[in-house]
Batch of 4 targets.
Target 1
Amino acid sequence: MFRVLFLKELREIWWIGVPVLLVLLYGVSLEIEFGARPDGEGYGFLRYTELDRYHPAPLIGGTFARLILLWGGMFSGVLGLWQTFRETQSRTWHFLLYRPVNRNVLLWAKVLAASALFAVVVLLPAVGVMLWAATPFAHASPFRWSLTAPVWYALAACPAAYFAALFAGLRRSHLAGTRWWPLLGSVCAFGLLPNMVPNVFAIWVWALLLIWISLLIAAVRDELCAADFS
Amino acid sequence: MINAIQTRGLTKFYGNRAVVRSLDLAIPTGCVYGFLGRNGAGKSTTIKMLTGMVHPDQGIAEVLGENVETQSASLRTRVAFIAEGHPLYGGMTIDQLEHFSRPFFPRWNRELFDRIIDHFELLRKQKVRRFSNGQRAQVSLAIALAPDPELLILDDPTLGLDTVVRRDFLESMIQIIQREGRTILFSSHNLGDVERVADRIGVMVDGVLRVDCPTDRFKATVRLVIVEFAATPPPMIEMPGLVSGLTNRNRWELVIVGYGESHSELLGKLKPTAIDVVELNLEDAFIAYTRGRRRLFANDSAVAPEPVLN
């Protein structure tokens, strides 16, 4: 049962990953090309700050982490919205929810399908770049694993966007667009956090992220299992 | 007889408005039950409560003896539900839909599924989004019936279907499921369909079940009474069972539930020139009944029509 639910979800979302994967692969190629060059040219249209010019080493300057945060976050949000609004728009919630299976299973099939796609589209390129950066003699610059912290943070923040989007898509319309507040909160808080705090590797940042994602998962479960689907 | 569906005091509020009020419904096993009512009367909300899509605010609903609030996955293998509009995944073909649905149901009858698909001459490799409304309804029916359900609940299944498809759909449904003594609950706006297939009807008016009786009894109970006067008719009078009335030139057109001797005597005292009692078909009876007293007494819309029960 779980398998057919998982495959059904994957069938509906895989195509969203294609353009994101192409953009990220382009980002990876730029990171490898420019990160490996001592003169440190920028990223072209993907460059966010002039800092990159002065930080030619891979992962230094945070461009790649911001790339992952921006595209991974957007991708996660779109996945969450697509997986819910599509069911609403095509009125298939009643069909899906009436399958003789616990609603938690339906939820986790959606989450795991999105996670699998995220792993291929975002996680693999990110890990690929980090492994390349960690490979001795791959580039003419020093490397420490702590340099990868912003990338790990970017990857960890994406589920906040995903679950907030799921929640927004599941929640019935409420006054003043409150269904969107968690998504807005996730984007503002965890999207802008790297620019506001000196060290995203601080324990409190990760604790906050973990608590927020846990709250979102609880809210999504409650919405799917206890709310009316009229 | 054991009831396939039983509700006691079932109530649902949307905001401050009660869309279903204290519903006591009992549908016997083996019955084809037509659930009627105007838009917003509470039919769909009731069906959604019975299928666990909407949670009741008060009261209890039991389906096949199991409380819907604790509705288990196993109950849903025994109760088929076709939601309004026949929602299906448009990107799937019939084969893919079957492949998707089959693992959920241990009693999936592949042969029956194939027979229904072949009967309706549906193309298995075609995506569902390319099917017409009628064909989607047929696919929904095949998916609903293949698990061999004991109870079939359908929310306005013939909405948007043309006459031929509608009739074919209903007849197939009845042939396939009812011959084995199973139960069907379906809501409908089409009174002709209900009249043709339902053993028993329920009529919801403003969230209240006002009629719950065999179809024939409802038709036999509601009468159009035309009272002719020689001159301008007198002001309308109150009488038991009066659900609607219209003054038309020199006559009254009254719709009365349970018309009998007492009504004849009462009307006779007004010295009419003629009293004609006309039998109504289900559609006319339904319209007259659900339109209620609003046309009769403009300020009296809160007064519900006489209930027809049992």
Target 2
Amino acid sequence: MDNYKSIINLNVNGAMYTIEVKNDWTLLKVLRDVLGLTGAKCGCDKGQCGACTVLLNGKPILSCLTLAVAVYGQEITTIEGLSKDGELHPLQQSFVDHGAIQCGFCTPGMLMSAKALLDFHPHPTEEEIRTGINGNLCRCTGYAKIIEAIMAIANKGQR
Amino acid sequence: MLNVRGNCIPLISGVDKATASAIFITDITLPPMLYGKTLKSPYPHAEIIKINVDKASELPGMIAVITGADIPNNDRTIGLANADISCSSSR
């Protein structure tokens, strides 16, 4: 079973890819090793850290626990698709401005969770922001500045 | 100096990290690249008496299994870093 392969279509950041994958490859492996999109990180590979978070049809998922064949034909957004035409997404700019980035390893996953949160809840409370990113571990910042960065965008009503 | 001291200075690598154009070690692939894995003792404060590498050596694609025995004059590089640590009063 492990050696069986499938041909799948993936829509990643608006681009269509037709690729051959082994049936046991995770979406994270395909993004990083096949498509070369190394923004989503492999932190724990067990669904504990959230560094691999990407959006599946707009909702945050752990790409290390998602088989690539299971998301056949669906719409994936990664951190590489967040900024448009070289212009930072407001959340990215806010993370930079508020010092919400230190080592940067959790940042891509954290930003994708934050984007999904604001897409579904444009004006979250601080508590809701904490809940929105509670699947993303950060060992540097202590979260306070990340929450401030998201709060600043939420208050502006920007997405 | 005065425009730095007392001010919040944005992280130089901030934008690179926010856009994921920052490259981490695990993002680098250099063919032909070897992959390594460490095996740790499942027991805390245990003394390593022997290591059997036979099965590991037979794995397909295996290049090398490296243990303390491969290090010349290895005294404590691999193994107990400090033999006294297990009875340290701070633990």
Target 3
Amino acid sequence: MGSYLVKRLAASLLTAILSSIAVFLIVRAVPGDVVAQMLGQSGGSGSQAEEALRRFFGLNEPLYVQYLDWLGGVLRGDLGQSWVRGQPVMEIVFKAFTVTLQLGLMTLAFATIIGVPLGLVSGLFEGRRIDTAIQAFNILGLSAPVFWLGLILLIAVSSLFAWSPPLIYRTPFQNLSDNLSTLLLPMLSLGLLQAAAYSQFTRQCVVGAFSEDYVRTALAKGLPMRVVFAKHILRNIMISLVTFMGLILIQILGGVVVIESLFALPGLGRLLITAIETRDYPVVQGALLMVVFSALLVNLLVDMLYHVIDPRVRVDA
Amino acid sequence: MSTEAPQLMQSDPKLSGAGRSRGALKRTLNFMRREPSFALGLSLTVLILSIALFPGLYSSVSPTDIDTTAALQPPSAAHWFGTDELGRDIYSRSIHGTRVTLSIVAGAMLISAFFGGLLGVVAGFVGRLTDMVCGRGIDVVLSFPPIILGVVISGVLGPSITNLVLALSIVYIPVFFRIARSGAITETSRTYVEAARSVGLTGRAILFRHILRNVMPLIMLQYMILFPLVLQIQAALGFLGLGVQPPTPDWGAILEEGKDYILFAPWISLFPGLFIMVSALSVTLIGRGLQKRMNR
């Protein structure tokens, strides 16, 4: 376990560093550069204003110096200042992240509660009518664009129940019921897709397990289906289901970008888009870094959990 | 399927071209009878392709004609899907958007299948340092959730069709890379590769003449499986205003325009979304059918 942990952490760390370089470079891939864009037509190159701005943003340094400066800040927990809002990026990003995290965890819970049981039923009754119905749900759920589903839900609740979610976001500590009713539709629109994905995956696991020797043996020695299912199948597919949970969480982390924009939630995705639009690069970098690091962390946690559930798994397995 | 054809030819040289295609047709028809969902997917795809190729057959109204006297009209006999805030016909915009949207998705995926597939096959076949360097690079791309990377690339570079295609193709290179790499690793350990080596074939010849040909079906199947996903991401980027710019009709872009009128004129958003869903659905059904066939 010890050496595995070290290897796994080293791999994650390497990816984290490479990703941070990518984050840093993406922002600098703009045709022209930030200063030129800020000055627009009025500045003209080589002007004093351009020089001053360059120095102010630290853009007069070579790229690697800029990167190391930024990385040093990141390690100290300092992501710089927002060029637009003037606040520390760390503060802005962290605040947005809490919104995204809450939505993400709620969606994950919803997808798991709906998706896994559906998948189990569908796998157990492979080829029956209920399996066909659940598979139809899966395919439809996977085909509908998330944001479109969000739009449809908005139309549906407003025309059927004459209800629309509160326009201003409140944290759960300010007003829990407002908070939850704001997040309800975003959770549903993201969650249905993920529930469909989870259900399809669970079904595959169950169907796969049925063709395994240990299940055939267990059934052949006369164990009741109930016991085989609970003790043999469930326990063996659990590990795949947990891994998939991590994958889904990462998917949700991406999916929130669109959903947050649609429902005007002040989360990480919307922050990222606004920051890109206003060319607020320290915020873009900060938000991106937060997304990438959370995705890496989720992957790492899933791998660790793997170990706890099934000690047979080793690093190169 | 593509691997089957040359084998058939070798095993029975007398079989005429017409006979062969009739046999293939019969097999396909039989398969469609057993798998009605595959048949449904195939017919829907044919329909959608015909819309993409000949939009004029389905709609005679221009998708960009502005008529402010007919703005925000609900669906009617004159405007089947209603009109948008500028009085443009949503039916015509959805029909003409088919070619725009689908060619962006298909083109971007071709690019990522080409580069991802090539890199993957080479990495899997050569192994060692090449494999490690490629693998790390791919890990970095994979550490970004797909939509986020798409948003950042097309957002930072500025919204245009070229940047959208670039963003989508970069996002999906890793998927093709992984499939091609694992396929190439499996193929490299097969006896025929050893045989080819022993008769003196160069690595390059083995790679391009044998391994690539056997990995190709995997890449093609992956293309089908990914298509609905990429379509949705393309639409999402369009919806965020990062894709095709107005007045060009594109499903995601129409949805973006309809967003502000969602409660007064829901039809603007309803129909293009249905087009996306049906296209995604039909390709998914075909992909599932092909997967079943290949597994057998």
Target 4
Amino acid sequence: MRLAVLIALALAVGGTAQVTLSPSPASEEVLDFLQTMTVSPQLKAALTPVLSAGLATKRAAPQFALPFLRQLSVRPAPQAEEALTVIHRALERGFIVDPLMTEVLKGLQMGQPWERVREILWIRYNSLVATQQVLLRYGIVGVGSQAPGGPLLDQDRLVLELAWAVGDYYFVQPQETLEAYVRARFLRLRGPVLAPSVVDPLLRVLTQDLVQQIYQAMWTVVN
Amino acid sequence: MPLDELDPMIRGAIAREVQAGLPTLEGLEGRVVRRLARPTVRRTLVQRIREALSSAVIQPKWAFVGATALLALGIAIGRLSLPGTRPLSASGANLFTVAAPGAKEVVLLGDFSAWQPISLFDHDGDGVWSVTVALPPGRYEYAFVVDGRWVGQDPVAAEYVRTFGEYVSVRYIGGDGL
């Protein structure tokens, strides 16, 4: 009986043991895979240095970029090219692109039609551009590097999280105001994701008018 | 009694004993052959295990070695169930559970895994499936898929978002990884 208890205990403890996520692929692996894709040589030539810089500055993480490229590689070339174009533009502006890539992966995992995936990808991209423009106008963020090769700054993460919150508000359509929704989001982000020194200045100037400007600008971004 | 009288008495007693036992010796050879030809009654595996467990005395050092080996096996099973490229560095144990009595397969999907499946297990058969994933601090979106059905609203989630018409749960993991 003691032996049986021992086996059960060991298997239970071992079986529920912590899953550690696998080591990240190398950046070279991502760039090599890009070269194997059946997209236009011009796009590859334009994207390669930008993606390389994004990987080096952690605007793109190999663990998301590689599955993203793999998923695109099994789709028709025009679809892959459009998604890569969005990533290219986002990196050129210095945005963190991991959430853009995982958003595509999420939609595909859900079995969504490509038209819906591409629509959401563009909305997310537009929300990044709109957020950056409005925060610059308000003086909440500086000009920054605005390129994939510059150092990643706290304000880059701030732009991403604000853009994502505004985008989520559009998709979720909650009862509360946009300002309340964004404020609640940033109170949760404060600490785990963003340092208080980054969040607090935003919370001090956050108004319905500010976020409403982002919300409206999302639909007027000229790509 | 003189010793020379003892010997005939013993011989006589043995002779009488042999004479008395003769009927029982009749057909002895045949009975032995038939018994040997009869198939042996085999004990079942359960009976053997039961006997072994009832009589086993486990030395502490072998118990430790066995438990360590089984633990390693369990961990290996847990790791092998995780496919492909999931590369974030570990900083905290985060338990994901979902009640799915009678389910055959339950997986966890999340942005941390590039929305690739991570298997959950129900070791004790109580219908609660779980897996612990090491994640660094951050905001994470996730959902469960139970026998192919999307389950996006985890009761313990901090919030829910809905991008593609389906809900996903959101969890915030603090500086201690929890």
